[in-house]
Amino acid sequence: GYYAQAALTPFVAIDGTDSGVVSTLDLRTYRQLGDRVTLAFRGLLGSVAGPSLETAPADYLFFSGGSGTVRGQEYQSLGVDLSPGVTIGGRSFLGLASEVRVKTGERLSVVAFYDAGYIGPESFIDGSGEWHTGYGAGIRYDTGIGPIRFDMALPGSGPGDSSGVEIYIGIGQAF
Description:
Helix content is 0%, strand content 57%. By secondary structure, the protein is mainly beta.
């Protein structure tokens, strides 16, 4: 199947910020191979247009890392470094995720995944930002109303600490 969601959110300047617009796009596709194997792919795109990085509202800036973007990387670990020790969100975001889901029994499945994320200071991706990746495997137990998810992931590449294992437990598929 397919899934698509797009959003445009204009915002008006208040104290210390500038007006602009946030745009997001979430695209997903699923391809079943036989009765037991499903390939799942997701692409996320985000942009803040109008204000500079320093005058954009912090709530509208993008981070990458964690279960919703790049598993294996710490939650919101990738942003834009303004100076040593000062990291804020970026004005552009690209997230890519892929999964291979294999049903191994009546209720049990195993999953392998690879995720990548990009955060940049620019409104539209031009390559001046940073990338990071993560990969791992998981188990899904189908409860009849949705799967219970247990994933273990490792950081692949990118800035920051790449030594730890991240564990994710949730209800439903990752995407």
